[in-house]
Specification:
241 residues, globular, Beta-Lactamase, alpha+beta, 2 domains, two-stranded antiparallel ribbon, Arc Repressor Mutant, subunit A
Length: 241
């Protein structure tokens, strides 16, 4: 398991582009016998722009997005209301759903998506994400896999979200200045009180490289200290909410 997890981490840090992220999650989901996965990213509000990374059948994801199903999807609706991971499927909540929601689940089942385990993610920028591992059959093996790896799946979801947002949410403008993905990421960690050494460990880069990105961010923002750069980042976030 350690080797599988390390390979996943290495894949995420080597390339944050969408195809590479999809491959990394597909491989670890298969290694854990969890089949398909989907990562959906959007704002809290209904009708917010939605982005999706998954290995679900393309015919289903295209149909889902084209019909705006994210606004009636009971999985996404629950993800907006809770931070706790949950299992879903007809046997869990069929009697609680409306006609459109039941229709959505029935259509999804036609593409081999009958039940799943979803980890909601609520981030500081007023955005919602959800990572789902799904199966065609709600058999005991799937339930056992989820229970056995529950903590690991939550960690995978958070790590995946951290990398995916670099590609899906390019809001890297601070005070009107566009930072690179790495500059913005390092500055975000600095805002959480992390040193260059800490950031290097978290991002699997050297302390010197982390400091280099922070220096570039300071230079672009026209400030002399990390504290000043962090203050600008915080102000930009509050303005954009």
């Amino acid at each position: 398991m350690d080797l599988i997890f390390r390979a996943f981490i290495d894949s995420l840090h080597s390339n944050a582009e969408i195809p590479a992220l999809r491959t990394a999650m597909t491989e670890i989901a298969a290694a854990l016998d969890l089949g398909t996965f989907a990562y959906l990213f959007a704002g809290y509000q209904h009708n917010a722009e939605v982005r999706l990374i998954s290995n679900y059948p393309t015919a289903w994801t295209s149909h889902y997005l084209a019909n705006g199903y994210e606004d009636v999807d009971p999985v996404i609706e629950r993800s907006r209301r809770t931070r706790e991971p949950f299992e879903w499927g007809h046997e869990y909540w069929c009697r609680q759903l409306g006609g459109q929601q039941i229709q959505l689940l029935e259509e999804a089942a036609g593409f081999g998506i009958r039940c799943g385990f979803t980890i909601p993610i609520h981030d500081p920028l007023s955005r919602i994400a959800a990572v789902t591992f799904a199966a065609d059959d709600c058999h005991a093996k799937f339930a056992r896999c989820v229970e056995r790896h529950r903590s690991l799946l939550q960690l995978l979801a958070m790590l995946f979200h951290s990398r995916a947002q670099l590609s899906l949410a390019p809001e890297r403008s601070v005070s009107g200045i566009m930072l690179s993905p790495r500059e913005y990421e390092c500055l975000e960690w600095a805002a959480k009180g992390k040193s260059a050494w800490d950031i290097g460990c978290i991002l699997n880069i050297s302390r010197r490289t982390a400091a280099f990105h922070l220096d570039n961010a300071k230079s672009k923002l026209g400030v002399r200290t990390i504290a000043q750069a962090v203050a600008l980042l915080t102000a930009s976030r509050q303005f954009n909410r």
